[in-house]
Structures are given as structure tokens and as C-alpha cells.
What we know:
The chain contains three helices and 94 strands. By secondary structure, the protein is mostly beta strands.
Amino acid sequence: MAAVYNPASAKEITVDNSGPGADFKSIQEAVNNSSSGDLILVYPGFYNECVDIWNNVSILSVSENPEDTTVRAFKLSANNITLSGFSVQEYLNLQGPRNDNWEDLIIYDKIENCTVKNNILESGIGADNCDNSTIEKNTILKSGIYISGSGRDSTFTVSDNLIVSGNISVDHGPYGCLLLNNTLLEGGIGLIYSDCRILGNYISNDPESGISLSEASSYIENNTIVNCSVGIHLIWLAGMNKIYNNTLIHNDKGISIWGSGGNSILNNTISKNNIGILVDGWAMDQAGDNSILNNTISNNNIGISLEGDSSGNVVANNRVELNTQCGVYINQIKDNLGEKYVGKESYYGINRFYNNIFNNTVNFFNDTGNYTGDVAKEDYSPGGNSVSLNTSKTSDTNIICGPYIGGNYWAKPDGTGFSQTCNDWNKDGIGDSIYTVSAYDIDYLPLVSIPGDQQPVFPVAEFSTNASNGYLPLSVLFTDLSQNATSRAWDFENDGIIDSTNKTPVHVYPVSGTYTVNLTVSNENGTFSKLYPVVVSDGPQYTFMEAQITKNKSNQVKPAIYGDRIIFLDDCNVWGYYTIYVYDLSTSTEAQIPTNISYYNSEIWPAIYGDRVVWNEYRDTKGGAEGSNIHVYNLSTSKETRITNSGKAFDPDIYGDRIVWTDYRNGNGDIYMYNFSTGRETRITTNESDQDDPAIYDDKIVWRDRKKIVWYDRHRGYSTWYKDDIYMYNLSTSTETQITTSGSASNPKIHGDRLVYLNGSHIYMYNLSTSKETRITITNESKSNPSIYGDRIVWADWYNRNWDIYMYNISTNTETQITTNKSDQIHPAIYGDRIIWVDSRNGYRVNELFQGNQDIYMCTVSVMDPSLKPPVADFFANVTSGNAPLKALFTDNRKAAKSQNCGANGN
């Protein structure tokens, strides 16, 4: 079990300016009277104060709702500060004390390890010389985030913020900045002299640039940029950037590269812009050596435009289709000013186009003779930077699955393109004649289509994962879905080392980071790969508090939990005969439900919701057991009611005013429901197969459908097997839905829009909102009794060769072992942060005979946010040894308290 370090010196301080009982009425007073590592909790209200946090403390709002806890201003000027849950009216500044050792410059001491999250920041936030810190999950209105002045070795994370009418600006550092999953409405991201990772952001309606870089080299991936002047703008000397897998729609220019070189533009979707990709430059600020590869550039006015002194660029493997004016526009010069200033050209002059699909009414328009730029005519040569429309003929699969790489595929939407009509008598996928594209340009190796019955069959690499991100250690199940492949090779870190050749391998990532998974598949016609990112993060730390609920020497089994109440069966009165008991966690008291003793049966399993406990029982009357019926007991009124009279009712479950169960009154198992509000019984299923093991949540009922299959084999005769699948019935829409089709699913449980079940030796989850099934467990050992509440799934697992309880967090994709005792722990149930189970660790012997003695145990799960780091004690002693009596001077090395005022802008 994980442990949490909590120094004895740390304390909790409360602030409330409108009620009695708190330690202080002012937040600043609480800070001034705090010590390093203290937690300051602020009750709702308006605090008209400018708070200078000069100590290493955490300041949180009690409600965690920033709308009801407002503070005029904060200034964070020390290390290890966490600020969460406030509405802040003025500019929030992360800035250390001013360093007066600099005479001519205003320099501030570095601070680090600060976290600002879950706030409403009405005037924005800035971080000046602040390292290894986080700004996350804030709402920022009519302002933005400004970060500056950190060193090359520092990191900074800006994630999951909503910014309205504002920007994220990073100026001169930090170089390890991560801008992740932010939403910017009427704003953009700007970098100056800073290297960052810009991942998964949504940016819209910026009148200038969605993402702009100047003298920066960054990784820009999976962003969506809509309705901006320029989607991604490399303004000046922005080199070696990787722009990958972004979506750029409805911008004036999707990607604009001006005066920058060595950039990679890969796998982007660029659609419905005026110009999809623009490359432009002049004099010493040429735009060259850029790679434009594997992009889909469609439905723009112009697909790709090379203008000015843009040279040495490679355009390959792209789909340039259905662009209105033209697919490619060329308006280039050779700018002789560059030679005057530097003595030679910066980039090799040829722009190379090959292995692209062009499918536009006008595919290629070279306007070389009509350059109208600002350079004087004597300083440029129109058309000086030439264009090549093919590479050498090379044996490899081309973009239309032909056997050779050469030129480009020239098509038109009406089917009259050169590549659509050219002959290919030798069937090599290269046209029998050259294609004169313009007065300046010829494709000597144009690609043509090969008839379908003559095309080689190439492998297609494809795979799925059960998780693409999560907390470490992250176990990921990969499933190969490739087609036409005769071999496969997995490289889980893309480091060139083959890790597995299995179809469904499992890989554990033990260290945080962003990994690239590479699946390579082959057949006799070629080799193809698929790359996919997996992000592994340092996760929150779980703490588990285990408690033994029952302690008497009898067997307590079949537990269920709701709120503070745990119910279970106990054979303490007569061995083999069980009575229902309820344990109240709020009072630590146990009580027997006053009902008749029930005859033992393995199918008796009680359920609880609110004040109602429901079960099926064989009531012992006059020495014989009558049929099984459903009973309910109200804990508030101490009243028991029998719900059924069929004598064939089993498997009850309860939610709200509804009870569901399996009833065999019709000769097969059917699902029935009883509504307390109406007093009405309803038959849910009428199918002739058996329906059993129902569960209910809100208006949804799930169950196992068991269809009997009789098979005749002339050697073995008749045999019988069962096809088990999960079904659901929606009471609001009166519709039934089949969830699984595997024929081996059982034990369904439901909470919210998620249901879990066993399928073979694995736990699966089905999301009703997305209709997506996910395999939760990795190992192939037996599993049993899954249960779900919120984002957590629990089950019993045979992985350690005894039954243990495991937990899976859906939101973090992490699996955690809850129990480690070598005896068996079975039948888990979960409610909130509490997990209960049946535990066999307390078995004992009487006269050498082992006595089972099963008990109910409970574990309470709590999570420590990794940003809330414990304080570290630090002191100095002038002497550490000597003769008694020894006099020593101790000095606290923690930063001394220093009060600073913050002005209207937080400076």
C-alpha cells in the first residue's frame, strides 16, 4: 500500500471573514502566521485584499467553487505554492522578490514548483522567472497567460485552461514548456525565442495567428485551429519545428512559413482555407529546406503556394485535392540580395515535388514571370529557384499503391487528368509519356493507376489500444488489426528495438513521458508501419486505509454497500443458515435484520439502496423450505414486505423505487420489475431463453441472456452449450439492446452510462454514451465479481495464485492491487471511496481442523494530488557533538518571512 509523508510540523489553518470559528478573518493574516507546508483553507466570501504569498503553503477554497470565493489579488513569490478554487479580480503574478544585485536590469529571484489551478482569473496570469510549475484547469476572461524569463533547463505546464479573448504568450523561455489541451476563444498562442510542446489545443477566431513562432523551435501536434487569419505562423527564423497531425479549417492561411527553414509539416488536415500552406521569404530570410509530407490539403482556394525566395523545399506524399483556384501556385524569385550580404545562397534552389496526388481542375500554376514583390528588379531573377516534379525511379510502393516511386499522380475531378488517361503498357505504374505541366515544368515519371486485378496486395498496418494515456506504471494492451500482413514487429518506444511479435501484446511503461509506438507489418510486396503516441504521466498517489468490519468467529459473506451501510449474510446463529446483518459505518454498530432464518442457498445475495434491503429467501416453514421469493426490509420503519408469490424469484437488485429480479414462473428465467411508487409489477423480458443476474441503475436494467444451443455430432451424439451475452432495457424508451455478441459474457453491473462484465477471463467495460467496448484487464488469469462506481472498477483476481482485490481507474487508465494478503479475498463491492470484500485471512484451527471464518473487510481509498508536495525540514546546528552539558545553536534554513505589497497589476 502507498504511504503519504506528512510532517508533524505542518498544520491546517482556516480563514472566514463572515463567520465565527475560523483561525483568521484575513488570508494575509493566515499567510503571515503560517509555516512551510501548512494548508490554508478559505471559506466562501469576498476578500478585498491583495495577498502576498511569501511562504511555501497551499491555499485552497473550502468549496472548491471559484464562483463563491473571490479575492481581489494574489501574488505568489515563493516556492512550492498551490492556489486553487478562487475567483481573482486582478492580475495574478508568479514572481519572486526583486534581486537588487542587478543595477541596470530589473531581475527577480527564481521561484519554482508552484501550481495555480481551478480558478477564475478575471485579469490574467503571468509567470516571471518561474520554473517547473503548472497553470491548469483555470478559466481566464478577457486576458491571458504570459510566461517569461526562465532558463533552458526549466519546465512549465499550461494545461486544460479556458481562455476567452486572450492569448498564451511564452517569451524567452522556459524551454521545457508544455501547452496542453487548452481552449482559446478569440485568442492564440505566441512563442518568441522559446522551445515548447504545443499539444491538443483548440483555438478559434484569432484575428492574427492561432499559433505563432518567432526564433523558436517547437513540437506542434493534434491542435485544432479554426477561423483565424493564420492557423500556424512561423514568422521569422523559426526553424526545426515539427508540425504534426493538426487540423486547420476556415483560416485565411492554414500554415504560413515566412523566412524560416528546416521545418517538418506532417500528417495535417488543411481544409477550407484561402491558402492551405504558404512558403515565402526573401534575401537572407529565405524559406527553405522545409518538408511538407503526408498532408491532406483539400477544398481550399489554393492548396500550396511557394512565393518569394523559397527554395530547397520538399513536397511529397500529400493529397492535394478539390482546391478551387489551383492545387499548387508558384510565384518565385532568386533574391540576389542574399548573395550580396552572405556571399552564397542559404538553401539549395530546387523545390522538389514527387509522389503527391493532385486532383484539382487546375493542378499546377507557375506564375514565375509575373513576380510583383517589393524587391528591386535588379536584385532578383524571376524563376531563379527551379522546380522538380519527380525523383529518381525507385522500387517502392507509391501513393496510389503502384510499385515505383517517381513523379506525381495528375488527376482532375471530371476524370480527364493526365494520369487518368495515360497509357502504361509495361504495367510499372509510370506513364508511357512525360507530362508537360507548364511552360517551365515537366514530370518525367508521372504516376498512373494500375487496374485492380493487376495491383499487388500490400500490407496495411493498423492496431488498437485499451489506453493511449494514463498514470505510471501504465499497462497497455495492443491489438494488431493489420490487413494482408504475413509478419509483424512491435517497437513500443520507437527506439529501433523489436519488443514483441505477438498479435495482442501487453507492454508496461514504468517511466513517465511521451512514447511513440511503431507497428511494422510486411508481406512479399512491401513493408508498412503505423506510429501512435502513448502519454504516461506521474499520477496521484493512492493511500489505502484498511479496516476489519466483522470480527466474530462465523462466516460473513455476500456483502453490499450503500452510503454508510454495509449488509451481509452471517451464519453466526446456526452454521449453514444465514441471517442478514447491517453494519453502520457512521456509528460503528452492527444489527441483525429481524426476519426469519433463511435456508442457505448459493444464489441468495442481498442488495441495498437507501433505507431498503432486498433479498430472495427460501423461508423455512414447518420443517420444509417453500419456494424462493423476494423480500424487502425498510431500515427506517423496521417493516418487512414480501414482493413476490411465485416461489421462483431470484437475483434481486434495487435502485430508487424499483426492484428487479429473475423469475422462473414461466418455465424459463425472465426479468421482472416492481415499482414501490405505483405498487405495480412488470415483466421486462419475454424471450424463451433464460435471462438472469439483473442489475439496475436509474432507468436502465442489464442482465445476462443465456441461450441454450444443442449440437449434434455423428461421432459424439448430442451435446449442449450456452451462449451468454449481456442485454439492456431502457425503461424511458421501452427499448431493448444487445450489448455483447461474444457468447461468453456474464456478471453485468451498471453505474451511470457505464456497465462492466466478465467476458472469458477478462473484465470489459461498455460505454452506453459512445457505444464503445473496452477491455479493462491485461493478465489472462481468472477474474470474478466485477463492480463499478463512478470512475472505479473493482474485481477479484487470481493473478497471484490466490484471490486478491484489484481496482481500475477509468479516467487515468491505471490498475492498482488493493489487497496483498496471501489468503483469498473475494466478492468485492464499491461505493464512493469505499471498497468492501469477503476475506479469509482469519481462519483458525480447532483440533487440527481448519475453520473458515470469513470476514467482511473494507478499504477507504484517498488520493493525494502530486502538486501538493509535503514540506521539507531544513536546519543548521553550530555544533553536532561534544561533552555534556552541550550548548548548541539551531537555525531554521527555510526562507524567512518577508512581506511585500502587490499593486493593482500584481507587481
